[in-house]
Amino acid sequence: MKQPRLQDVAVRAGVSTATVSRALSGKGHVSPRARARVRQAAQELGFVVSYHASSLASGRSRNIGVVLPYVDRWYFSTVLEGVAGALMEAGYDLTLYNFEGDRYRETVLTDFLLRKRLDAAVAVSLHLDPEETAQLLSAGIPVVGVGGPLVGVPTISIDDFDVGRRATEHLIGLGHRRIAHLGGADERERYFPMSSDRRTGYERAMADAGRAIDPAWSLIADYSLTDAYQRAKNLLADPVDRPTAIFAASDEMAAGAILAARDVGLTVPGDVSVIGVDAHPMGEAFGLTTIDQHARRQGTHAVERLLEHLAGGHGEPSNEVLPAHFVVRSSTGPVADPSAH
Amino acid sequence: MKQPRLQDVAVRAGVSTATVSRALSGKGHVSPRARARVRQAAQELGFVVSYHASSLASGRSRNIGVVLPYVDRWYFSTVLEGVAGALMEAGYDLTLYNFEGDRYRETVLTDFLLRKRLDAAVAVSLHLDPEETAQLLSAGIPVVGVGGPLVGVPTISIDDFDVGRRATEHLIGLGHRRIAHLGGADERERYFPMSSDRRTGYERAMADAGRAIDPAWSLIADYSLTDAYQRAKNLLADPVDRPTAIFAASDEMAAGAILAARDVGLTVPGDVSVIGVDAHPMGEAFGLTTIDQHARRQGTHAVERLLEHLAGGHGEPSNEVLPAHFVVRSSTGPVADPSAH
DNA sequence: GTGAAAGCGCTAACAG
DNA sequence: CTGTTAGCGCTTTCAC
Asked: Which among B72, B117, B122, B226 is the top mutation candidate for probing chain A, defined by the most A β-carbons within 10 Å of its own β-carbon?
């Protein structure tokens, strides 16, 4: 049994195909009576418009691409969930492009994005060089970024510098002087923009408070719990020259640091305080103090902006900075011996 | 500047559009010389076929749908990554449908899947009732399942019953008698199929070994680390009547159990052994013994089967059971006092 | 091996 | 408010 076509509905409803199209899409005026009959006929036939035919004819596809470097890390999957939910509400399809680090970066940019099948795209925390940005934009569709500021693309993000500074100041306020930072960098020595900004915020806060930063305390991990665990363990193993607090650029890394601390016999926050960023749900079980960056909301917000733009299009959407909020739990506390140096 | 069309390439190469189509798609015979000229012309013009036009004309879209209940849980995002990678290699697009639990279940099934824009779909760990399965299948496209056996749909999975039994037997072999299980169930009181099978495997192993199961030891959590943490904490708080080992149906839950044990002053594996399922990367930092179910491979494998089917189509793909492997680390060990009852 | 031409199923002017 | 009529850009017989 073949799928019914719009033509079939037209015949059954006793109107033209144009009227059916209008009645079903809601565009253009159709008499209530005709509308009812069309709906009825479509219903009976189980008619569903063909996306491809519709898209080809109209030039729009109700389909938005999401480009991200990872899908199995909390921040990305959470933003993705936000984006997916918002698109679903709006009746849009979502096409997923996963770089897997750098593995498919090239392929996605050159082969996939250009097939003119997307109405728009959202790029999550991507760091693209000018040429790559040009490739992205050459698809000729609106793009909005989430996370790292993408040069030349309107972006939804938080103030990562501020987050880094506030997290560090929280620790400083608790009397800590020896504060380490566990941040990230990507495999190709290109920073995740957010990582470097958070790190800069940390450095600024330390400098402003007149604290020295031991270079050995400025760690780089790959954003995974396990890697952070290893590095934190090495850092904390030294009983004399270890920090009393750690600011990790993500909750997963913060969790790794807490595990590391415990495994070298230190208590949290007794011997070492730990603060993260994200408000990852697992932070609860760790009693982790963190800064909530509302990842899901970043995703939904990006979609809202994109759809507004697609609908009205009053100028390009511009950069937008969303707030981030402290969630204080039990992993941070006053330094044990403030006089220690 | 408008995108070049197939026509433009044809003119430039001095051939017909039919030849360009054949040359570019690789279907049908084209002389090497014509092929070269077409490629050249397409190259120079920066031509990319229009997906919609191509799909409309051919009836195929090189687009596969992925339907899953969550995207921010490790198992699902890992399977998704596997699926995405395999599809990318094959030059297919991936359309994502996220149920978000049950939030969009209905919508996805009724509104989205039917728009005849997919060549096939993979359904990850979905439990559908017969009517829902019918809806899925009514899209008229091949579907393969991953994870839970989907009645009427060929599925790639592991033997969850066997996993549950082996995990439990591992504990029994270490001398444990008092073994608890931390499994999952979904919000609507419909089991995740895998959860109930793992639980059954646990029960069988216990029965076979002549161990009694205290009903209070058969816990249900929502698969999150934090929920597992809470429940395990309640379970382990009782100093007299607590289990000496816990089999958790996922590594995230196992991690929660380990945190809980430590927080009530117990050592792992000294006082309580914990085993999980998944081989979640964070298991390393926990020293977690687990059973690797090769989640990513489940995803890639499903795609391979699907593409084979799409290409050759020698009969329906059938159910397939992939192996799972022990990864023994330090969270399981001999029971402290084997004579304890 | 290659070209001509007929669609694929729908949308969007343009008349009426 | 509704019908007519071109396409949208590509694939695919069917001849040559």
From this structure: B72
Instruction: Report the candidate in A8, A16, A18, A20 with the shortest Cα–Cα distance to residue A44.
Output: A8
Average pLDDT for residues A10-30, to the nearest whole number?
93
**Is a pLDDT exceeding 80 seen at residue B337?**
no
Please give the pLDDT value at position B187. Answer: 43
Give yes or no: residues B299 and B151 share one domain.
yes
Residue B140: left (phi > 0), alpha (psi -120 to 50), or beta? left
CB B132 within 8 A of CB B151: no
Nearest to B197 by CA among A267, B74, B205, B290: B205
Give dist(CA A137, CA A158) in Å, integer.
23
B199 is in which domain, residue-wise?
A: 160-292
pLDDT by residue (tens digit) across B3-47? 899 999 999 999 999 999 999 998 889 999 999 999 999 999 999
Residue A21 contacts strand C, CB under 7 A: yes
Enumerate residues near strand D (beta carbon within 7 A).
A 14-19, 22, 28-31, 33-35, 53, 56-57; B 3, 5-7, 17-18, 21-22, 24-25, 27-28, 47, 49-50, 53-54, 56-60
Tell whether A287 and A205 lie within a shared domain.
yes
Q: For residues A281 and A252, give the distance between their C-alpha atoms in angstroms, rounded to a whole number.
A: 10
Q: Is residue B325 part of a domain?
A: no
* Nucleotide showing the shortest C1' distance to residue B52 CA: D9
The number of C-beta contacts closer than 8 angstroms across A and B is 153
Q: Is the pLDDT of residue A189 over 50?
A: no
Rounded to a whole number of angstroms, the distance from the CA of A310 to the nearest CA of chain B is 20
Q: Are both B80 and B33 inside the same structural domain? A: no
Nearest-CA residue of chain B relative to A56? B52
The whole-number Å distance from B48's CA to C13's C1' is 28
Nearest by CB to A95, which of B80, B94, B108?
A: B94
This prediction has a pTM of 0.94
Question: Cα separation of A203 and A168, whole Å?
Answer: 9
Give the number of domains in chain A: 3
CA–C1' distance A4–D2 (Å)? 22
Which residue does chain B place closest to A288, by CA atoms?
B226
Chain D nucleotides reached by a protein CB under 7 Å: 1-5, 7-13
**What pLDDT does A140 receive?**
81
Please tell me what DSSP assigns to residue A232.
H
Q: Which of A155-159, A213-217, A266-270, B267-271 has the lowest mean pLDDT?
A: A213-217
